[in-house]
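Researcher: Go.
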Amino acid sequence: MLRRSLAPAFVFSVALMVVSAASAQTAGQRGPSQPGQPKIALPDLTITSAKVTAKCGNGTVTAAIVATVKNGDFNGLADLSKIPFNIVMDANWGSVLGESSLETAPPVKPVNPKAGGPKQLAHGEIWTTTMTITGIPKFKKGLPKPGQYSFRVTADPMKAVTETDETNNTMLAYASDPCVVH
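Model: Structure:
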């Protein structure tokens, strides 16, 4: 009689342990819930540098952005092969003084660049690329202060790679208006 009353409790305990183990494995790759199990290292993509060279020509500005992305020193392999369209980095631009400080936009709107890259980055590995934006409108003449462009460079812009820190994938860079005559 005692065996029968313990059997359902035993089955329930075993089922609870199986469910707990399964949920610990699917809870995420950031680490185990049980002590003694190894943590799975995730990558951490960071823009470590972004430099802009802006040139004036044909009534518009062309900006060349040299940017470097790094996978953290002690992080796991970054599998970049799963990023849609292999877009490892992208960039966009704006005016620090606001859109109204720019001359009328050219007939063809500037295209924000996207850069394909390697299929993976091991921990500590870096990759550098150059992205170019052409046709950026010049600043209007007679502004109270010199015009300045801002450029935002982002690693893994589609957030396709699960990382330890998703907040450090962006860096800002600036360039003065190259069309101003001093």
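Model: The chain has two domains: 1-40, 45-176.
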